[in-house]
Structure formats: C-alpha cells, structure tokens
C-alpha cells in the first residue's frame, strides 16, 4: 500500500552493484558502487517496440515484400513525482531527485526488478535521458521522466 492507502501494483527497483559511471571531472569511465534503489510509487511506465522489417518494392505490383522480421529494443518511459512522505519519514524530495541523477550517471546496463518488466521479459535497461521539471511554488513535489531502452547482455565465449 502507498502512503495514501492506495494499492501499489508494481514497484520498480534498480538493483544495486558495481557499475561503470561517467566521471564528470576528467571525462573517464570509472567504477562506482550503487545500493538497490526503489523508485517512488508514483511511477507510471510506458512501453513501445518496433518491428525490424526490410521492405522491398516490387515493380508492377502494389505494396511491398516484407523480408527479415525481428523485434527491436523496448523504448521505456518512466514518469513519476518525487514526493516526501506526509509523516516526514523516508527520503526528502530532493534526496529522491539526487538519487535519480546519480543513477543517470551510470554508463552501464542496469538490472531492473518489477513485474511490469518481467511480463515483457525485460531484465536490464539503459538510461538514455532524464528530465526533471519542478512545479512553480511546489518545492515538495518534483515531476521527473526517465527515458530508457531495454538491454540484453551479450556473452562471448572464446574457445
């Protein structure tokens, strides 16, 4: 249940671990340790995915011949609002935003937990963009949006 007494159908959690991250001071990629982080319960996730189809026009005919069919990565949009709990416990609004910005510095695939992802067989995501849009006059409610793509680790076996 959320703080407001409404049911939470799908919490979204970034798994903790050691990740490559961008060092803004010298531009290098360095290792950083992150703890497991659960996104605010206010998050809503949108998914879209295109098919990979090669189309060939045939002279003297209408339409096209479709060749080589596959699926692309899932495009994922996570929208939410960072809110401080009414009883004052837990992370402040700014601490939540700071955590999201820190995760945005990850230059790696992030394991993600949540039924909404498992139903689509998504186990890792890569953050491509984060947007934070404060509301004028509301210091304790900050909307955010995370754009990401699904990612599958590629394992190479050398013989």
Molecular structure report:
- This protein is mainly beta.
- It has a single domain (13-150), classed as Beta Barrel (Elongation Factor Tu (Ef-tu), domain 3), CATH 2.40.30.
- Helix content is 10%, strand content 43%.
- It contains two helices and eleven strands; from the N terminus they run E-E-E-E-E-E-E-E-H-E-H-E-E.
- It has helices at 93-104, 115-118; strands spanning 13-14, 17-22, 29-34, 37-38, 44-48, 51-57, 64-71, 75-83, 110-113, 124-132, 141-150.
- The strands form three sheets. Strands 4-1-9-10-11-8-5 form a seven-stranded antiparallel β-sheet. Strands 2-3 form a two-stranded antiparallel ribbon.
- The mean pLDDT is 87.
- It comes from Dysgonomonas termitidis.
- InterPro entries: DUF6046 (IPR046109).
- Pfam families: DUF6046.
- This is DUF6046 domain-containing protein.
Secondary-structure content class: mainly beta
Distance between the termini: 51 Å
- Detail the poorly predicted runs: none
Q: Mind telling me the C-alpha Rg?
A: 20 Å
Tally of individual domains: 1
Which CATH architecture is right?
Beta Barrel
Q: How much is the average pLDDT?
A: 87
- The H/E string reads EEEEEEEEHEHEE
Specify the overall morphology: globular
Find the CATH topology.
Answer: Elongation Factor Tu (Ef-tu), domain 3
Helix tally equals: 2
Q: How is the largest sheet built, in terms of strand order?
A: 4-1-9-10-11-8-5
Helix percent reads 10-25%
Assess the beta-strand content as a share of residues: 35-45%
Q: Can you summarize the main beta sheet? A: 7 strands, antiparallel
Q: Got a strand count?
A: 11
CATH C-level class is: Mainly Beta
